[in-house]
Amino acid sequence: MEITRRTALGLALGAGLAWAGPASAQGFPDRPVTLVVPFAAGGSTDLVARLIAASMSKDLGQQVIVENVAGAGGNLGADQVARAEADGYTILMGTVATHALNPLMLKTKPYDPEKDFSPISLLVVVPNVLVVNPQLPVNTVQELIDLLKANPDQYAYASSGNGTPLHLSGELFKSMAGVEMQHVPYKGAGPALNDVIANQVPIMFDNLPSSSGHIKSGTLKGLGVTTAKRAASFPDMPTVAETVPGYETYTWNALFAPAATPPDVVARLNKAALAALADPTVVQRMGDFSAEIVGSSPEKLAEHVKSETAKWAPIVKEAGVSLD
Amino acid sequence: MDLLDNLALGFSTASTIWNLGFCLIGVLLGTLIGVLPGIGATATIAMLLPLTFQIGDPVSSLIMLAGIYYGAQYGGSTTAILINMPGESSSAVTAIDGYQMARKGRAGAALAIAAIGSFFAGTVSTFLVAIFAPPLTAIALEFGAAEYFSLMIVGLVSAIALAHGSVVKALAMVVLGLLLGLVGTDVISGSPRFTLGIREYADGLNFVAVAVGVFGVAEILRNLENERTREVLMAKVSGLLPTREDFRAMAAPIVRGTAIGSILGILPGGGAILAAFASYTVEKRVSKNPEEFGKGAVAGVAGPESANNAGAQTSFIPMLTLGIPANPVMALMIGAMIIQGIVPGPNVASEQPALFWGIIASMWIGNLMLIVLNLPLIGLWVKLLTVPYYVLFPIIMAFCSIGVYSVNSNVFDLYAVALFGLLGYILTKLRCEPAPLLLGFVLGPLLEENLRRAMILSRGDPTTFITRPLSAALLAIAVAVLVVVLLPSVRKKRDEVFVEEEA
């Protein structure tokens, strides 16, 4: 803390005479920036991070290095950034899990998603999708609801684990559509998806990117996307909300710095993030990936975190999920 | 014929100078990280993932990443044999007899056997992937929670056969392993268990940390205790190549190991490591001299090594045909595909035939490169043993620490290495085997997870395990293994007294 303040002061003094504006961002960044991804390499958050990092490096003129600090559903990595020095050289790829769901489910909270971070920018929104095995005799969300209502609690749905966004998407669906189905958690979305393809479990909410290949080839039936609007990559697929009004869940990725990071450093990172989101390669890859580019100001992200927390709190409570 | 056209396309894709180069880089890197204890393929591929951006061509990047993966399987056996330090989880089994061969001065032969077995297995399983990928995928999809549970039972029952001393001690080790496997977040309820309130253990103990601890660090401690015997061992390194007798002894185990590995490798989860253990069990059972196992049996190296390499190749099947990762390495490969704009899924083979068949062809080319690379290197590796131990062991420890840390950047994994090193040393003193412990550790969580998932799906009806035909068949096999294991031990009751005394 002491050192940061002194460094900032020194930079401010050095630059202050020549520049009237924000000073401490002048030298920033003069060394590589570490982008902590709180999940294992290869997952969707990791891929978004790597695409963005490569492009941000160009804008910042310094390498943005992706470091995977996986564990405890994203809490380890988020906690590490919350406690890192607030100089902008350690930033986090936050998600709906690290900044809305996990803090709601943990009794002992390792960090506060609002107070311990300086938001930088919301990056992308990744829709989820309701998929079923082709052998399940339903073709629309309404038919699924009818089937579940006719056979209460006779069907199960798979998820990537207890308390994950995909699990809560299922719980939200159950409560909003007024249906019952058994929850079957897995260690990650991969094995869960495998069992849905094999018809061991007939229903699942999945991230659209990992299911899209299966929906296109017919190994899975996509009933609806979970965003308010239809996904650009699947214009013919209805939204779940068209049948269950108001239903909306999605996974989002956003950049956060530790709290007390100088505002001008945050602004510099925000500028780099927005530049990355406008990079044609990133735009195209995100499109292939079914991720919708958002981009926002730090203030908008702060509001977003608040509204997501408010949205999920009752669902988490109703589902009775707690992680310790 | 379609297949020939496809293979021709594959080979022409894989044998461009550019792709051959990436294949070579991949297998070289793989061998290197496999040899370095603790540094695994997962961490390396994760680190190289950004590089695949720069390569630009998806075929080349995937060929390289695949090379790293199976190259590491080759390399992992090197340290397992030379210093009893399994570099990869599946080479934990190779360490049992391989290290004993090395102690008898036959390190060169053991390494050659491992390389030859791996090459044979790699060749056969690559063709299996090419010809039978779709039907094999269908088999893998037949495996639900109940079937996995029954398969794990077969695995655990077989674990008893892994021990070459007392059955009671082996059982105790399996149970200890099962308990250690429970550490971490309970998948079904989401609550942390036995983590001592340490959040870093929320995802369980790291396998590499446990394996490096109980095998490697424990062995170092044991060696340091008696520096002189170690030097005696060094002196009698003889004969780099396997003898005619060795060739005769390894032929059948290699074929059996390849078959076991090819089948189990397809199954996601513990498939590949189970393959090595299963092969060891089978070899010990069919051997005319089961008492040699644990004391440097050729079959104990040849079988499991073939099985783990075959498993490594066939674990590509679910990834290539369904886009579903069988293990963390495959998850990274899928990530690499997505980075390149390829959507993984059942359509990859039809939409990207050059990629699909190119990777398959490169696997065989890579295996060929590996054996050409590795056979001449054996002499060099064996020379490593002549490095004075006081120089060697700090280096080993340093690499172990870097390797274990690189997996999750988690300091607590290093504490686990230290703790398990100590535990391993105590177990050695008590003459308990670390291999059954590791098997229990790997299978325990899978066993529990699938048992509970099967019970949720059957709505609490335990007959699901015998009414599902595949599951019932597997349980029958488990019972059969149990009978076979128990019968001779009853018969040999008198002999056991000797075993205990000798031990």
From TrEMBL, chain A:
Residues 1-25 form the signal peptide. Keywords: Signal. It comes from the Bacteria. InterPro entries: BUG (IPR005064), Bug_dom1 (IPR042100), TAT_signal (IPR006311). The keyword Ion transport does not apply. It holds the Pfam family TctC. Belongs to the UPF0065 (bug) family. This is ABC transporter substrate-binding protein. It comes from Kumtagia ephedrae.
Automatic annotation (TrEMBL), chain B:
Coiled coil: none annotated. It comes from the Bacteria. Keywords: Membrane, Transmembrane, Transmembrane helix. The chain crosses the membrane at residues 16-49, 109-133, 145-163, 170-189, 201-221, 254-280, 324-343, 355-381, 387-405, 412-428, 465-487. InterPro entries: DUF112_TM. The keyword Transmembrane applies. The keyword Transmembrane helix applies. Residues 20-439 form the DUF112 domain. This is DUF112 domain-containing protein. It comes from Kumtagia ephedrae.
